[in-house]
Amino acid sequence: MNKIDLIALNIFGDFLPSEIETLMESSFNPSSPFVRNLFKDKKLNHKLENYFKKFDVKLLNKELKRIEKSDIEILTFWDEEYPPLLREIPSPPIVLYCRGKIETLVNNPMIAVVGTRKPTAYGKRIAKDLTTELVKEGFIIVSGVAAGIDTIAHSTAVENLGKTIGVLGCGINVVYPSYNSRIYDSIVKSGCLISEYPLDTAPLKYNFPRRNRIIAGLSLGTLVIEASEKSGSLITARLALEYNRNVFAVPGNINSVMSLGTNKLIKFGAKLTMCVEDIKEEFPYLNFNKKEVKRDHEGELSKDEQVLIEKIKEGKNEFDVLLSSTNWSFSKLSELLTQLEIKGFIFKEGGRFIAGI
User: Fold this and answer.
1) On the CB side of 41, how many CA atoms lie within 13 Å of its CA?
2) Sheet harboring 110-114: ordered strands across?
3) In which domain, by residue range, is 302 found?
4) Are 301 and 222 found together in one domain?
5) Are strands 110-114 and 140-143 parallel, antiparallel or unpaired?
6) How far apart are CA 106 and CA 122, in angstroms?
7) Tens digit of pLDDT for each residue in 91-137?
8) Fewest 10 Å CB contacts: which of 36, 49, 216, 317?
9) SS3 (DSSP) at 75
10) 5 belongs to a structural domain
11) Is residue 133 classed as helix, strand or coil in its secondary structure?
């Protein structure tokens, strides 16, 4: 069974990887005429019957042509690049439509950052602060590209030169909310957008709880910033627990509607989270720190910035010494040092510059 067959099964069916493997072991052909009661498993036979009712070769070919002409890559459950933690959940997607850097999906520690679409000023600040620290510690930020906390998490990760994964509840070519096109573009440049839904799939209400299982499945843990009692982010937290993943929740004002959900999560066992250390200590085996994050971004330094860091490493770490050894102007050196400090590659200690990488 090839990738085209799997795309067809994803578009017109609703199969688990284990069911696909049963089909692979048989003489089943996704585009052949329907054979009633082909298998002993009645549930699988019923799914096949529904699949052939929906199967449309013209629609399939249209989808394939559009994928071919786009920057979309297709990952299947059986590809090496498929996210390993996502394989472990009970109902992993058999196909992922991807835009961006698919290598982001493997061998990287991921944390989901989710919450209400209508955060308070407190929630916005906490989301920005915690996401910034998580990025500095080397975590990939996973969220759902929705309004509110999701958007803050993605944009903060990008602003801090981090990587982020956006999981969509619609087709990967559908921008939702419509004003989020810039966020889509920035995610693609720094990480990856993914969706299990075929192209043009509308952001229907029932798609989002299903989407949440991917957010939880990709991640080592889920951090809920603010959530009302009926927030969709609580679904993500519940799924994370079902998948035996960590759940973190930020405490809030007991009189705030937007903290009722998070406070209840804490009451029933989620880890009360006030700083990034509360998250880090649950993953001591990762040993990720700021130094490793900075190495990941060395390629984003200008040539002058790289030269400057090398000189600081050599011990030329005082301003006057750097000025004479580079032959740069006072203003140029000052600007470069400031930029490197902002990016976190160097820091100042007792009048000397220290390279943090």
Assistant:
1) 11
2) 73-76, 95-100, 192-195, 164-167, 140-143, 110-114, 221-224, 246-249, 271-272
3) 297-355
4) no
5) parallel
6) 33
7) 999 999 999 999 999 888 999 999 999 999 999 999 999 999 999 99
8) 36
9) strand
10) yes
11) helix
Q: Supply 68's token pair.
A: 């071919």
Q: Looking up tokens 């627990």, which residue turns up?
A: 241
* 275-316 residue pLDDT tens: 999 999 998 878 655 434 444 444 568 888 888 988 888 888
Residue 292 confidence (pLDDT)? 42
Are 49 and 36 in contact, with CB atoms under 8 Å apart?
yes
Between the alpha carbon of residue 314 and those of residues 153, 291, 340, 353, the distances in Å are 37, 18, 17, 11
With a cut of 90, say whether residue 346 has pLDDT above it. no
Is the domain of 313 the same as that of 257? no
Let me know if 154 is exposed, middle or buried by CB neighbors in 10 A (0-12, 13-18, 19+): buried
Annotate 5-35 with DSSP letters as a single string.
HHHHHHHH----HHHHHHHHTTT--TTSPP-
With 0-12 / 13-18 / 19 or more C-beta atoms within 10 angstroms meaning exposed / middle / buried, residue 241 is middle
Same structural domain for residues 273 and 253? yes
Residue with tokens 């809030």: 252
The CA distances from residue 260 to 227, 251, 347, in Å, are 7, 9, 40
The most confident of 180-194, 304-318, 325-339, by mean pLDDT: 180-194
Distance CA 60, CA 69 (A): 15
What integer pLDDT is reported at residue 350 of this predicted model?
Answer: 62
Number of Cβ atoms within 10 Å of the Cβ of 59? 14
Q: Given this model, what pLDDT does residue 356 score?
A: 59
pLDDT value for 32: 72
Same domain flag for 154 and 247:
yes
| 79 burial level (CB within 10 Å; 0-12, 13-18, 19+) | middle
Report the predicted TM-score, pTM, of the whole model to 2 decimal places. 0.77
